[in-house]
Design brief:
2 domains, six-stranded mixed β-sheet, five-stranded mixed β-sheet, 24% strand
Length: 260
């Protein structure tokens, strides 16, 4: 069972539960996916194998290479991509997504409209503001769904920061809310960490929820206060790369291929 299988099973067990469906979409966006291609990829572009049906056109992805091989029954060209990158590539292309079809319990069809909706949801950026916490207290009243979503999301953010604390804060202007504070964030990682927290909130299915995100150095006095009362999240240490050779098509986030 892969994380996608587990999320799909939870969604199938509760078809009326919007939060379960959102968590499946979140796992899909976070997963490494293997896209079946119509021809060998190049460093600049990939051409997926498009399956035309009465319900629309679909491209096929699998969350394990073995599942792709089982579906094809032979060798076939493919590209390894994050689900998030693939969803953005498919946006506006009028293409649906077939996930693990015929080879896994998480077999699922997303039509083009659902793909565009997910791409739009993943593109929602948090708003920036300047504020300084005046009072820092223990967090309280937060749904377990949100805490689990944050834990799962931050587990994917190794090397982006050392630690994060969740606390209830009162700001200098008197406003109050929950804040997720990252300690010693890596240079340039602030946007990705803010987006991760924003997605955890969005995909937890909490209506009208709000979570502030802040960044502090370990030497900042606020960090010491957070360590005493905040709920702590330890981000995992990054693992060393297994190889130093060229990456597979689609796996360089700085140079994503174009969809043809």
């Amino acid at each position: 069972m892969t994380p996608l299988d587990t999320a799909h099973a939870a969604m199938e067990a509760a078809p009326e539960d919007d939060a379960a469906r959102l968590r499946f979409y979140e796992r899909l966006a976070d997963a490494e996916l293997f896209l079946l291609l119509g021809k060998e990829a190049t460093a600049e572009s990939i051409e997926p194998n498009v399956f035309r049906t009465d319900d629309g056109d679909f491209v096929l992805v699998f969350d394990l290479e073995e599942r792709l091989a089982e579906f094809v029954g032979d060798q076939a060209p493919y590209a390894a991509l994050s689900g998030r990158a693939l969803i953005h590539m498919l946006q506006g292309q009028n293409l649906g997504l077939g996930v693990n079809l015929e080879v896994a319990p998480s077999a699922y069809l997303m039509d083009a409209q659902a793909v565009d909706w997910l791409a739009g949801t993943l593109s929602e950026a948090p708003q920036e503001a300047q504020a300084r916490p005046k009072v820092i207290e223990r967090p309280g009243g937060l749904p377990e769904l949100l805490l689990s979503a944050l834990d799962a999301k931050l587990a994917l953010m190794g090397a982006a920061a050392r630690t994060a604390y969740l606390a209830l804060v009162t700001y200098e202007d008197g406003s109050k809310g929950h804040m997720l504070a990252f300690i010693d964030a890596a240079p340039g990682a602030e946007r990705a960490l803010s987006q991760a927290a924003n997605e955890a909130l969005t995909f937890s299915g909490i209506d009208a929820g709000q979570l502030d995100v802040a960044f502090f150095a370990a030497s900042d006095g606020v960090s010491a206060k957070l360590s005493k009362v905040g709920l702590r999240f330890d981000l995992p240490e990054p693992t060393a790369p297994a190889a130093t050779g060229p990456s597979a098509p689609g796996m360089n986030p700085d140079k994503p291929p174009k969809l043809r």
